[in-house]
Specification:
Largest sheet: none
Radius of gyration: 18 Å
Mean pLDDT: 92
Shape: elongated
Length: about 180
């Protein structure tokens, strides 16, 4: 079996999927089901560091976990796996963008089934209000979206490149 072609085809499929996610981040992604428990665990993990970091910890851990996976793959010099995983990091930024963009309106349905305007605690409303940046919500959210979109584009380019060029042409496999 030619794994190079299979990996290349997979890279095309995930690139197309994540381009769609970047175009319509408000529609969500299957990875949202992975992001949510990681986000919530971040609140618990960062509890010893005070209220602000407890709240920010959800977003922080949501970005740290995929970054750690990417770092692990890079350490092993598995650039294809790192680039495929980088799609997750880009998607996670887009998930954060949707939450951050909602900081003023607070219309997203949050854990527990309520919106921020109905009394649910809204992380990004709290963080931007506490830092005095609530009036810059749209700018901050746009920058987060830009980061996520650029990461997805970079991930797509790299995954296509490494799917074709990282395996040995003679064995078509990796050495571990």
């Amino acid at each position: 079996m030619n794994f190079r072609k299979l990996k290349f085809a997979f890279a095309i499929v995930i690139a197309l999927y994540f381009f769609w996610v970047a175009l319509y981040p408000q529609n969500g992604s299957f990875l949202d089901l992975v992001d949510l428990p990681i986000h919530e665990a971040g609140h618990i993990l960062f509890t010893p560091f005070g209220q602000f970091l407890t709240v920010a910890g959800g977003t922080l851990l949501q970005l740290i976990v995929p970054t750690a996976f990417i770092a692990s793959f890079l350490y092993r010099e598995d650039y294809y796996a790192a680039s495929v995983t980088a799609h997750w990091l880009g998607q996670s930024f887009l998930n954060v963008y949707v939450y951050a963009a909602d900081a003023v309106k607070m219309q997203l349905v949050l854990l527990g089934g309520l919106t921020g305007s109905e009394g649910a605690f809204h992380d990004w409303n709290f963080m931007l209000t506490e830092t005095g940046l609530i009036e810059y919500t749209n700018l901050i959210a746009s920058l987060i979206r830009l980061c996520g979109t650029l990461l997805i584009i970079l991930a797509a380019v790299c995954s296509l490149y490494f799917s074709w060029f990282s395996a040995s042409p003679d064995t078509d496999s990796y050495e571990y």
